[in-house]
Amino acid sequence: MVSDDSEKAEFLEERRGKFNGQGDAVILPSTVEEVQRVVRCCASHQRPIVPQGGNTGLCGGAVSRPGEVLINLRRLNRILDIDPINDTMTVQAGCVLANIQQAAIESGRHFSLSLGAEGTCQIGGNLSTNAGGINVLRYGNAREQVLGLQAVLPDGRLWNDLTELRKNNTGYDLKSLLIGAEGTLGIITAAVLKLHPKPQQIETAFVALRDLEASLELLTLARAKSGGALSGFELVPQMGVELAERHVPRCSNPLPGDHRWYVIMVYSGTGLELRTILENTLASSFEKGTVTDAVISSSEAQTAQIWGIREGLVEAQLQEGERYTYDVAVKVSQVPDFIHRASALAEQRMPGIRPYPFGHVGDGNIHLSLFQPPGYDPARFRSRLPEFDTLIFDLVHELKGSFSAEHGIGLLKIAEMTDYKDPVGLSMMRAIKQAIDPLNIMNPGKVVATQSACQTSSRQ
Ligand SMILES: Cc1cc2nc3c(=O)[nH]c(=O)nc-3n(C[C@H](O)[C@H](O)[C@H](O)COP(=O)(O)OP(=O)(O)OC[C@H]3O[C@@H](n4cnc5c(N)ncnc54)[C@H](O)[C@@H]3O)c2cc1C
């Protein structure tokens, strides 16, 4: 148990300052049995529990409130087994993602999940949020990286399904329920993860595009010609490059010039002439006018420079002032349409607002920030958030997209669950929650609030 208030702060603080964590107790169990004991004790006193990993989540799912007990998994951080023939790794939930990636590399394998917070987030948190990241295009979300799971249920029982099987059709897929449940159905304590061959070649290019539509033309060609080697395709706006260069030390544009849109393309694999394939794709795109300029990295330093811009454009947002942020998904073919329409709607509603779309265009997941117009009163800007939420989420809904692509629901998007989710699906979720957690003590109020809480929180 962490009792010192200053030590508690790192577990209670929410990194974007949107929520004020105030849990009564912070507990750091070091064994699965300890997790079970704490959960049983909480269940017998009907004390709400908040599971927590690296606390990098962006929707307030790991935020605890008065009266709640926060259980952070960081001490359950052992890699239990690596089986290079079965291509699996069994890990405890508190393992930091970057350590898992490193352990895979050291045994000549590859673990594909990769995201900006990988030096801090834990695999338990990644699975609980069904994290996405930069390799979804090739390998899928976190859910697709899992064969088996172990979790402590809200009554303290241990559900132990650490199976290493690739075929196992024995009823409901319970692990898929816990993955993406954001800690509302139980505390994940361990998982069996899928590994892949370690790519012998990785080619990274920074590519300037004719326009936004050109991103889809290039994506389609790259997918057709790369023999399945295309693993990353990230959209970078000119404004992102400018902000990264302005606000983040050591960030510099690998391709200076007047270009509105760029993509970062990554090919990875073994035994293919990836560089030649990439060069050919870029050359034919250049001839067609889809691509206006490009650089293929020729050194680790240049690759770091390219990824520095991608990471820098996220970091730079924090320095640029007030903004609304959206993590949405649409069909890949609708990405340009969504970006154009969302930007136009926002600009009409608030002249001078600065749209800043970027992200995983290869899988249809766009991170859209809307920066306040220069000189606009910050308090007034903040007060207009609900208006812009409706504007953007209505558009996403019209396009049959998702109001939360990869970050989840947490406390942040509870209202959108009732506003945009299919009511039948939502009632099935409530029934599942009620069946597994009848006392409603496991991360209550997150993802599926009770009917009455939903009614009060739903936006008008
Ligand atoms: C710079 C930056 C970049 C990011 N990039 C991406 C990205 O590209 N893609 C993406 O998907 N996300 C991204 N994120 C968001 C975040 O990193 C992910 O959501 C991550 O998966 C959260 O992991 P965590 O261990 O920090 O979980 P936490 O923030 O601690 O918790 C997240 C949720 O999971 C629950 N939880 C945590 N551990 C457990 C457990 N063991 N059992 C049950 N429930 C648990 C919590 O209760 C909470 O609801 C980014 C965040 C930052 C700060």
Structural key phrases:
460 residues, alpha+beta, Uridine Diphospho-n-acetylenolpyruvylglucosamine Reductase, domain 2, Alpha-Beta Plaits, 5-stranded antiparallel sheet, 4-stranded antiparallel sheet, 21% strand, binds flavin-adenine dinucleotide
The secondary-structure class comes to alpha+beta
CATH class bucket of the domain at 201-318: Alpha Beta
Q: What amount of the residues lies in strands?
A: 15-25%
Named CATH architecture of the domain at 201-318: 2-Layer Sandwich
Summarize the structure.
By secondary structure, this protein is of the alpha+beta class. The protein is built from 16 helices and 17 strands. Among the domains are: 5-72, 2-Layer Sandwich (Uridine Diphospho-n-acetylenolpyruvylglucosamine Reductase, domain 2); 201-318, 2-Layer Sandwich (Alpha-Beta Plaits); 321-398, Alpha-Beta Plaits, CATH 3.30.70.2740.
Explain what you see.
This protein is an alpha+beta fold. Among the domains are: 5-72, Uridine Diphospho-n-acetylenolpyruvylglucosamine Reductase, domain 2 (2-Layer Sandwich); 201-318, Alpha-Beta Plaits (2-Layer Sandwich); 321-398, 2-Layer Sandwich (Alpha-Beta Plaits). It is 37% helix and 21% strand. It has 16 helices and 17 strands. It has helices at residues 5-12, 32-44, 97-106, 123-128, 136-139, 174-178, 212-225, 238-247, 274-288, 300-319, 335-349, 378-383, 385-398, 414-420, 423-436, 451-457, and strands at residues 25-27, 49-52, 69-72, 79-83, 88-92, 109-110, 146-152, 158-161, 187-194, 196-197, 201-209, 230-237, 261-269, 291-296, 323-329, 354-360, 365-371. Strands 4-5-9-7-8 form a five-stranded antiparallel beta sheet. Strands 12-13-11-14 form a four-stranded antiparallel beta sheet, sandwiched between helices. Strand 16 (354-360) and strand 17 (365-371) form a beta hairpin. Helix 7 runs antiparallel to helix 9 (274-288), helix 8 (238-247) crosses helix 10 and helix 11 packs antiparallel against helix 13 (385-398). The longest helix is centred in the C-terminal third of the chain and has 20 residues, at 300-319. The two termini are 41 Å apart. 46% of the residues are buried. The structure holds flavin-adenine dinucleotide.
